[in-house]
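Something for you to look into today, if you have time. What I am after is a single protein written out in full by you. I want to see for myself how the chain folds. Could you add the entry underneath, on a fresh line?
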Amino acid sequence: MAKKINIILLLILTTSLSAKTIEVCQDCAFMSIKQALNHSQAGDEIWVGAGIYYESQIIIDKPVHLKGRGLPIIDARGEGEIITIISDSVTFEGFQLQNVGTSYLSDWAGIRVKKSRHFLIRNNVLKNCFFGIYLEHADEGEISCNEIVGEAKNEMSSGNAIHLWYCNKILVENNQVSHHRDGIYFEFVDDSQIKYNISEDNIRYGLHFMFSNRDDYYKNQFRRNGAGVAVMFSKFINMWENEFDHNWGRASYGLLLKEIYDAEIQNNSFTENSIGIYVEGSTRVNYLKNDFIQNGWAIKISGGCLDNRINQNNFLANTFDLSMQSAAGSNSFDGNYWSDYNGYDLDKNGIGDIPYRPVKLYNYLVNRSPETLVLLRSFFIELINFSEKVSPAFTPEAIKDQSPSMRYLKRKL
């Protein structure tokens, strides 16, 4: 065993001693990136000077550090993928990649990482790429501090800014993505983190992930996307301190949860969305200490949702705070602050003395007949809501906050 370790150390030392620096520029011995890669060896650094390089189909098949000086531009002129990484331990940073072109069969990308590990992609700008950064069967890598701007016109003819498929232990951090189909897309991606990203003005979702488990999403901003964020068919998901803002439309929401199990949704803000959170068939999800501000519906829950906790949240000036299409079941709704709560606190302990019923009769009517929305804020609606409050007949009796907070609950940031 000791002999094997010594051999490995010797190989590492030999590689580091033989590593060299290669320069690429208009006046250098190497004037193209492909040419420099062909003459490089494992461990080499390749420095690319400022300028425009009209290249595509660049394959990185050895562990090298490829770095740009002065943000050199690699322009594919619509002829295909630009960078394809198929080696472990590759660093690619400091470039502007543009004009990949569209392919519905090959999903051309600005940067593709395929069956690789320990890679680093950072400080790049990608413009007008069909897919921005595309990972497939890649593990233990980092995508950070990139700006990815697409020119998507519709869902069918556009790709995603950051796309991960069958990956593990990936960090996606401090990226700014916009004008693609989905800003960030995860499918079969486990044990990974998405943090400090801004995903905005995408046609479909700011974040879209499916069949991905044990992932953390925090301190991201998702705003003005077609339908917000969709999280589906996953378990052990943690989402905290994110912002879901200004996702408006007939079928739009800040966050969609579909068949999610054992998740923590904490300290997020949902502001001016058609629906703050829309939930289908999700169990053991904790919605704690979130802000719901001026949404159409703050939370809209369909059937098949059990053992969920909606506690210690702030509901401020939403048209509807809560919609439930089933009985309360084993779900909890206690300890929230509701701006529409008109109760009292005689013992001054900060908790309302009478329960709050967040599901109004008008909410029930709109769910059954959406056209009744035209009556919003009319005196008639105020009258029927008051009548239902005095003598409940249609709204679910068990859905109530037994200990409503009298004060706004400060959210941890």
Observations:
- Confidence is low (pLDDT under 50) at residues 7-14, 383-388.
